[in-house]
């Protein structure tokens, strides 16, 4: 069945699956069926309307995964308003930028005192316990930018902004519904499945993959506030979880658990947001007997763009799979389409692709070639159409004219015993333009030698790819979306040099 918007979908599911269980919240042990959840949403939507929420208003949703987050998310949409999910861990300067850039009228948060210090709050209303519904004063600075808000926009989600300021990605109800269908088909989800939500809903992976898609499928959601290495497998067993979506960091943490147990309820584990090292994928599957489905996506694509199929269909370690529902092409520097095995920029077109960035006309134009979204990722496809990513165009290391991806070095580092996490970057160098530096997190029980690691790399890498130096850190800087923050590593190295 085709739905015009997410609320129409929710209303239909509340009728056809009224008494079936939809949500379990771990921390409160609350259980709700579809009808109970819909009734809560309607009640909250009416409350928001009485507090002044109007059609087209933009509402910041700023707190951790919870039943309340879901209720507020849909209640905002019932009022034909726009949800702006915001990471509550951002610093004041970052929050202030998002508040102003998105022209927020309201914020729903537990952090009233912190928020009131950086923006003018003119109304403070309790909607449930510690959660406040805050009305923001009109901006004193006149915003002269063209308002390009797409018709039927459901959410504006801010990207991490690897270069410059973060950008607000507009996703319509139609974008999200199309993407949810693609995810359902790709992962062969059914009403018998049950997902464990451990990724934050203020990022696209957690929000669309694990919160919204189950509604379309009609299966249960189990909500964890956040990932817990200690509790993860207990949750899987207690709630008979059939799948979850994670990021490479989560898989590294789970492999550091010493206890072994086969968890028969899990049908598959999903990995996305950043490349999963082949060694970690293989070790996880061997230890836990659960297939890992590596996928690839981005906020501008509504989340997933390609994924490996579910077994017994072919999965390829190192590949992010094949497109589902979208068209894909790879374009070289001359603007020509690449053949199999040839590397270029990966581009996509489809019903799930964003209309653009909120109030950023120029950036939107730069991100597209007609209807094709330019991802900025470099990759190639093989004879069966499986996509292999090499790296980001802006992350490629250029040493004396030789360009290569950090991933090539990292795959070798992960093969060295005792390295738990690794990342390579290019550091400015007067002689070569850039020099390779690697950052490693070691297993606490194994003492590592940078000289031996460099010698190990020399066995498997061309000389120009071998790290000049190895820096040991207690942990790598990782964003809320699971991606390693390479710019922070470069800054870290520069501080070490000083």
Count of extended strands = 27
Radius of gyration: 23 Å
Q: Identify low-pLDDT runs.
A: none
Quote the beta fraction.
25-35%
Sheet with most strands: 9 strands, mixed
Helical content class: 25-40%
Helices, by number, come to 14
- How would you sum up the global shape? globular
- Which structural class is indicated by helix and strand composition? alpha/beta
In what order do the strands lie side by side in the largest sheet?
2-1-11-10-12-13-14-15-16
* Distance N to C terminus: 62 Å
Features:
498 residues; alpha/beta; 9-stranded mixed beta sheet; 5-stranded mixed beta sheet; 14 helices; 30% helix; globular
Describe the structure.
The protein has 14 helices and 27 strands. The strands form six sheets. Strands 2-1-11-10-12-13-14-15-16 form a nine-stranded mixed beta sheet. The protein has a five-stranded mixed beta sheet with strand order 4-3-5-7-6. Helix 13 (about 450-460) links the parallel strand 26 (about 435-440) and strand 27. It starts with 5 loop residues before the first helix and ends with a helix.
Q: Topology, please?
A:
Layout: H1 6-16, E1 21-25, E2 30-33, H2 34-50, E3 58-62, H3 67-78, E4 82-85, H4 92-101, E5 106-109, H5 112-116, E6 121-128, E7 131-136, E8 153-158, E9 168-172, H6 173-186, E10 194-197, H7 204-217, E11 220-223, H8 232-238, E12 243-246, H9 248-255, E13 268-271, H10 278-288, E14 292-298, E15 303-307, E16 322-323, E17 327-331, E18 344-349, E19 356-357, H11 361-367, E20 368-369, E21 372-381, E22 387-392, E23 397-399, E24 402-404, H12 406-413, E25 419-429, E26 433-442, H13 450-460, E27 469-472, H14 486-497
Parallel strand pairs: 1-11, 3-4, 3-5, 10-11, 10-12, 12-13, 13-14, 26-27
Antiparallel strand pairs: 1-2, 5-7, 6-7, 8-9, 9-19, 14-15, 15-16, 17-18, 18-21, 20-21, 21-22, 23-24, 25-26
Helix pairs in contact: 1-2, 2-3, 6-7, 9-10
């Amino acid at each position: 069945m085709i739905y015009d918007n997410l609320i129409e979908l929710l209303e239909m599911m509340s009728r056809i699956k009224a008494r079936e269980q939809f949500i379990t919240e771990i921390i409160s042990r609350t259980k709700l069926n579809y009808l109970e959840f819909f009734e809560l949403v309607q009640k909250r939507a009416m409350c928001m309307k009485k507090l002044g929420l109007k059609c087209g208003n933009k509402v910041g949703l700023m707190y951790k995964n919870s039943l309340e987050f879901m209720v507020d998310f849909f209640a905002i949409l019932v009022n034909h308003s726009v949800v702006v999910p915001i990471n509550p861990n951002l610093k004041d300067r970052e929050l202030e930028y998002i508040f102003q850039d998105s022209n927020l009228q309201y914020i729903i948060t537990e952090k009233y005192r912190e928020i009131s210090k950086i923006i003018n709050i003119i109304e403070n209303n309790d909607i449930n316990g510690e959660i406040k519904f805050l009305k923001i004063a009109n901006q004193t600075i006149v915003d002269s930018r063209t308002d390009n808000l797409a018709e039927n926009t459901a959410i504006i989600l801010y990207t991490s902004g690897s270069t410059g300021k973060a950008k607000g990605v507009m996703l319509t109800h139609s974008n999200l519904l199309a993407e949810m269908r693609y995810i359902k088909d790709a992962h062969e989800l059914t009403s018998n499945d049950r997902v464990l939500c451990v990724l934050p809903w203020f990022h696209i992976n957690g929000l669309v993959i694990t919160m919204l898609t189950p509604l379309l499928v009609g299966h249960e959601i189990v909500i964890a506030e956040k990932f817990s290495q200690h509790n993860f497998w207990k949750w899987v067993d207690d709630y008979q979880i059939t799948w979850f979506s994670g990021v490479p960091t989560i898989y590294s943490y789970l492999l550091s658990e010493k206890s072994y147990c086969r968890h028969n309820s899990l049908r598959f584990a999903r990995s996305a947001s950043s490349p999963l090292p082949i060694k970690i994928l293989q070790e996880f599957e061997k230890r836990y007997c659960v297939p890992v489905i590596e996928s690839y996506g981005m906020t501008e694509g509504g989340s997933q763009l390609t994924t490996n199929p579910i077994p017994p269909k072919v999965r390829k370690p190192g590949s992010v799979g094949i497109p589902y529902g979208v068209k894909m092409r790879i374009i070289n520097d001359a603007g020509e389409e690449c053949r199999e095995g040839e590397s270029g920029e990966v581009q996509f077109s489809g019903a799930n692709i964003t209309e653009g960035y909120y109030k950023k006309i120029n950036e939107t134009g730069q991100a597209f070639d007609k209807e094709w979204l330019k991802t900025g990722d470099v990759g190639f496809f093989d004879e069966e159409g499986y996509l292999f990513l090499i790296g980001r165009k802006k992350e490629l290391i250029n040493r004396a004219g030789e360009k290569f991806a950090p991933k090539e070095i990292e795959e070798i580092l992960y093969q060295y015993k005792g390295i738990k996490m690794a990342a390579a970057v290019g550091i400015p160098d007067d002689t070569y333009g850039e020099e390779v530096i690697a950052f490693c997190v070691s297993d606490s029980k194994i003492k590592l030698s940078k000289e031996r690691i460099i010698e190990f790399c020399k066995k498997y890498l061309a000389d120009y790819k071998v790290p000049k130096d190895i820096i040991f850190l207690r942990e790598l800087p990782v964003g809320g979306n699971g991606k390693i923050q390479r710019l922070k590593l470069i800054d870290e190295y520069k501080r070490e040099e000083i």
